[in-house]
Design goal:
single chain, 9 helices, alpha+beta, 3-stranded antiparallel β-sheet, Phosphorylase Kinase, domain 1, 6-stranded antiparallel β-sheet, Transferase(Phosphotransferase), domain 1
């Protein structure tokens, strides 16, 4: 598909704004209303694969279960022999991954504001009996006013779904919980909490918590076995309260983490009472 031109009858593509393993996202105009939208189209190579189409549609099913300011809103979806697509609200921002720097971290107040919003959104996701399974900076859109939108529910765990089998791993390895990297089917919201803890650690320090030699199986072992370093050991200016928050979010045992993501968000707020948001 060209970056510009009419598509799907109703929508006119303006430019490509994102590309992933499942599909390509375009900024587009809804010709019926004049509104700007985002249209995600399943990759042509996957269009003939019924399982891929089912997983793509699952993003629609999952996101529509949640109504929260920090969750991307889905407008509609469609399918024909040539294309499967999802139409979403357009977000004028950038992925957090493009804003992170290993040498210049966000101010603490901004880090707390971003992570608290994501945690609040995830709490709503979990109340809808969903598990996102791919919480990472690429999927956190940051707007100009520092509001955030969590996107990409393409690998979300949906109740009563048989798409994921025991031993299968879906998500992004560097941000996965110990239970997720082991391919367990009984993961819950505590797994997303761990992933958000990794994001928090990365925002605080500019580094990943389980760095070391080797990826793949070696990284999986570190995630399962190695404790994360204290954030303040890498950045002494980080308040000690954040070491406790990170350690709890990244606990190997899900039962040792926060009770839910609302509690995670509250802990961040309690740790920064003097900071203006």
């Amino acid at each position: 598909m060209k970056n510009q031109g009419r598509m799907l009858d109703r929508y006119q593509a303006l430019r490509e704004i994102g590309r992933g393993g499942m599909g390509t996202v375009f900024e587009a105009i809804d010709c019926a209303t004049g509104e700007k939208v985002a249209v995600k189209i399943l990759r042509k190579a996957l269009q003939a694969n019924p399982v891929a189409r089912q997983r793509f549609r699952r993003e629609l099913e999952a996101a529509r279960r949640v109504d929260h300011p920090a969750i991307i809103k889905i407008r509609e979806w469609g399918e024909d022999p040539d294309q499967t697509y999802i139409v979403m609200e357009f977000v004028d921002g950038q992925p957090l991954s493009k804003l992170l720097s290993p040498i210049a971290q966000y101010p603490l107040v901004t880090t707390v504001r971003i992570v608290r919003q994501v945690a609040s959104g995830l709490a709503s996701v979990h109340r809808a009996e969903l598990v996102h399974r791919d919480v990472k900076p690429d999927n956190i859109m940051v707007l100009k006013d520092m509001a955030v939108k969590l996107s990409d529910f393409g690998v979300a765990k949906v109740p009563d779904s048989s798409l994921t089998q025991a031993g299968e791993i879906w998500g992004t390895l560097q941000y996965m919980s110990p239970e997720q990297v082991q391919g367990r089917l009984d993961i819950d919201g505590k797994s997303d909490m761990f992933s958000l803890g990794v994001v928090l650690f990365e925002m605080l320090t500019g580094r990943m918590p389980f760095e070391g030699e080797g990826m793949g199986a070696a990284l999986i072992r570190r995630i399962i076995e190695n404790p994360a370093p204290r954030a303040s050991s890498l950045k002494p200016e980080i308040p000690a309260a954040f070491d406790a928050i990170v350690a709890r979010a990244l606990a190997k045992n899900p039962a040792a983490r926060f009770g839910d993501c609302d509690e995670f968000a509250q802990a961040l707020k309690n740790a920064t009472p003097h900071l203006r948001e």
